[in-house]
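Revision sheet: structure tokens.
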Amino acid sequence: MAVLQQEQASIITFNPTYLKVKRLLDIVITLLAAPLLLFVVILIAICIKLDSEGPVFFRQKRIGQDGRVFEMLKFRSMYVNSDQNIHKEKIKLFMNGGKLDTSGDPSLAYKFRNDPRVTRVGRIIRKTSLDELPQFWNVLRGEMSLVGPRPPLPYEVEMYTEREWLRLCGKPGCTGTWQVYGRSRVSFQDMIEMDIEYLQMQSIWQDLKLIILTIPVMILGRGGA
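Predicted:
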């Protein structure tokens, strides 16, 4: 497994008991949710195949805990062979102090409104974050947690400062503080601080709270207050 070179010495030390309970929570909730979501997953897969050519799932290299590279799984929401430079340039703008144009979108993975690369079905599943459902597989594999910082793309991490590397001390998550409370009104630096504060808190109750608050974010298609 590839690992990106870390450029800072600071780390966040985790309580072993917290990590064990958090992992147990990940497995239990994922296994309980799987049968309930099976119909939704099948329906989305059929809609994707009918809407545009290409595979149902989209695999993308992301950076996980301690700089480890892994393949994150999502439902495909874009046309095949879409230009990824659009996303790269907007991420650079965001990291340099710009704002994401994400009105009406939960912004769980730096998604942009009116993106021409997105399919008709893709717009629906991205707005409701249903494109993220396959990440339960990443959770079961131990590459992600239900709650944690969003896993960044390799070219994002290449621009990280020493402080920003701290958000890679913990496992990335399907949802988290920024996804629930932040979205487009939060700057990149604010997002970093929210992630670091979450990792330092190490609270199972906070994890449960964020999981519960994610539900209305998905239903309403917007970030929480």
